[in-house]
Each structure stands twice: as C-alpha cells, then as structure tokens.
C-alpha cells in the first residue's frame, strides 16, 4: 500500500509529539517538517526519519506529493495555513484553537468545506480511555437523560509570564478543551454561559488582562446543566468528570502511575496523579492521529470535525463576554457581536 505523505508545520512540543506518534503508523510517511528555527531540529528530524526540514512552511503547501498537513504552529498563524492547505487540496489536522478571531475561523472553515478536504480539530481528550468510555455509556442510555455535568480541570502549574499575553486567555487556551468535552459528553450544543472568574494564583494574570481561576456554568440546548471549575495551579494535574442522569451517574477520577497504596501507622499513601497532560493523555494523542489517518485511508468522516473546533471557540468567546459583563450570556449574542450569520 502506498503510504500517505504528511507535512508537519511547527516543531514545538506538540509538533514533535505528533511526529513521533505518526512515525509509528505504517500507512504514513512524514516527508517534510517546517519550523522557523529549522536548524535547531535537523538532528531530531534525522533521528525520526524525516528527510526534509525547512524554515518555510510554503514548501509543504507547494509539494504535490504531500496529501495532508498537521498545523502545530502558533495560533495566530493557523488561518493563513488552513486557507493555503485547503486551496492546495491538502487534508488538515489543526491544533486548537483554530484561531483567536471567530469570524476568521468561520471564513476559513467555509473555504475548507468548499474545497472538500478533511479537517480534524486537535481535541485529544476525546480519545482518552476514560473520556471516551463515559461518552459511550451516555450514548447507550446507561444513565438515562443527562441532567448535570461536572468537569474539574486544573493544571499543576501556571504557564510562563511570556506565554500568557499570546495565549488568548484562559478560556481559549485552557478551558477550550473542557468546552469540547462538555459537548462531547452531553451530546448537545451550549445555549448559555455564566462565568465567575478571579486571580488567586498569581497577579501576573491580572497584569496580562487574564484570570487564573474560574467557575463556569453552562446551559445546554437539550436542557442539561453543566459546571466547569478551572485553576492554573493545583500542584498536580486534576482531571475529573461526573455525568449525572435520570437513571444513574458516571464518574472519572484522575489517572495514577500505579494503584498501589501504602498503609502504615502514620497514614495511607499513594502516588500523586500523573503530573501533566503529556503523561495523562499520552495514549489519547496516539489515538487521535491514528483516527485522522484512518479517515484518510478509508475516506470516512474525521471524528472531531471543524464544527467541533468552532463550537468550542464560540463557547469560549461567550465565556469571555460573561466575565467582562458579569452576566449570563446567550451563545447567540456572540454571533451578533462577531457579525456572523447563522
């Protein structure tokens, strides 16, 4: 079988992770990787069997042999790359968020739809063994009608000060994963958002016009209610979910390096949860790229669509407006704010 030739744009932490996972798939050949600091990655690329390294991503776009691109560059570069890839007829895997500007996201995705290429948004948590199992059980009706969703999502440590101004803010950078998982679990779009936010971890967030702690209430179009609590600093990676329904309840606890527990006269001890997302969601990252490649091989729909990326951004912008105006915000208001027609 002829292998699918892939180009990767951006060789930071996520770009390298995707490359290392993709090279394990027999259907794939990573032909080229681009990064503005190309010379810094040549040795790593050679070790991973990537023949071509370039500082200009357009080399990937202009290569007729490359069938699909992984966009792992900074968010403010995504739109131009998505549009170029779509015009070149290349399938697209794009890391979240698609963009910081909702109207630009809509325009780019309209072009993607017209071009007929496949587009998968990089929401890896959907492929986590715990998250996907809960979603399956909800869909099978094991807990009846969903009434309440609770998501706890807290990072072990805040990002560097230099990262915060370019991150897009907590909702678009961090909570966007939770917004996607909320839709994934409940099986419904969000109708209304209400946020209480604060700076309780580090005043640098306030200096950057951001927050580090939030409680977010969601009302879904199917009538279910949701609550997300976020913190930028929990000193461990805290990822828990509860879905309560008319017939029962489903829960996800944190993953641990082991389930061993030590009982002594002084107390009971066990390992701390897996420390960060690369450890916690390592298997999920493998599954998501495999799912994208499978969709290309078998010409089937991708499991996380362009609309999924757009809907999560929509909720994030509603959350930001709610925080700013200290009131519940209908998601439809955001469409008006961005001059987007339904």
UniProtKB/TrEMBL annotation:
Show where the Gfo/Idh/MocA-like oxidoreductase N-terminal domain sits: 4-123
Pfam families named among the record's database cross-references: GFO_IDH_MocA (PF01408), GFO_IDH_MocA_C3 (PF22725)
Q: What Gene3D superfamilies does this protein's entry cite?
A: Dihydrodipicolinate Reductase, domain 2, NAD(P)-binding Rossmann-like Domain
Q: Which InterPro entries match?
A: Gfo/Idh/MocA-like_OxRdtase_N (IPR000683), GFO_IDH_MocA-like_dom (IPR055170), Myo_inos_IolG (IPR030827), NAD(P)-bd_dom_sf (IPR036291)
EC number(s) in its UniProt entry?
Answer: 1.1.1.18
Q: Which SUPFAM superfamilies match?
A: Glyceraldehyde-3-phosphate dehydrogenase-like, C-terminal domain, NAD(P)-binding Rossmann-fold domains
Q: Does the keyword Oxidoreductase apply?
A: yes
Instruction: Give the GFO/IDH/MocA-like oxidoreductase domain ranges.
Output: 133-250
A single Gene Ontology MF term assigned here is: inositol 2-dehydrogenase (NAD+) activity
Alphabetical UniProt keywords: Oxidoreductase
Q: Which family does it belong to?
A: Belongs to the Gfo/Idh/MocA family.
* Name the record gives this protein: Inositol 2-dehydrogenase
């Amino acid at each position: 079988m002829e292998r699918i030739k892939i180009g990767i744009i951006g060789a930071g932490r996520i770009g390298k992770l995707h490359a290392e996972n993709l090279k394990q798939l027999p259907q794939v050949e990573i032909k080229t990787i681009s990064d503005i600091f190309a010379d810094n990655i040549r040795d790593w690329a050679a070790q991973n069997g990537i023949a071509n390294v370039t500082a200009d991503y357009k080399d990937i776009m202009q290569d007729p042999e490359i069938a699909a691109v992984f966009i792992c560059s900074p968010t403010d570069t995504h739109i131009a790359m998505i549009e170029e890839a779509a015009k070149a007829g290349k399938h697209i895997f794009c890391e979240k968020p698609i963009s910081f500007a909702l109207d630009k996201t809509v325009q780019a995705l309209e072009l993607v739809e017209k071009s007929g290429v496949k587009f998968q948004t990089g929401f890896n948590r959907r492929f986590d063994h715990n998250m996907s199992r809960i979603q399956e059980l909800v869909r099978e009706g094991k807990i009846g009608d969903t009434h309440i969703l609770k998501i706890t999502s807290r990072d072990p440590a805040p990002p560097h000060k230099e990262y915060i101004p370019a991150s897009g803010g907590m909702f678009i950078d961090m909570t966007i994963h939770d917004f996607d998982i909320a839709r994934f679990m409940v099986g419904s779009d969000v109708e209304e958002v209400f946020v209480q936010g604060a700076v309780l971890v580090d005043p640098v967030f306030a200096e950057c016009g951001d927050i580090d702690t939030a409680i977010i209430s969601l009302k879904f179009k199917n009538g279910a209610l949701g609550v997300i609590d976020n913190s930028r600093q929990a000193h461990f990676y805290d990822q828990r979910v509860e879905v309560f329904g008319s017939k029962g309840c489903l829960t996800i606890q944190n993953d641990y390096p082991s389930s061993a527990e030590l009982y002594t006269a002084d107390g009971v001890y066990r390992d701390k949860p897996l420390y960060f997302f690369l450890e916690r969601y390592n298997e999920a990252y493998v599954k998501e790229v495999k799912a994208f490649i499978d969709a290309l091989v078998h010409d089937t729909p991708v499991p996380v669509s362009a609309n999924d990326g757009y809907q999560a951004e929509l909720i994030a912008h509603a959350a930001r407006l709610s925080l700013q105006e200290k009131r519940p915000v209908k998601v439809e208001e955001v469409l008006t704010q961005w001059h987007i027609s339904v």
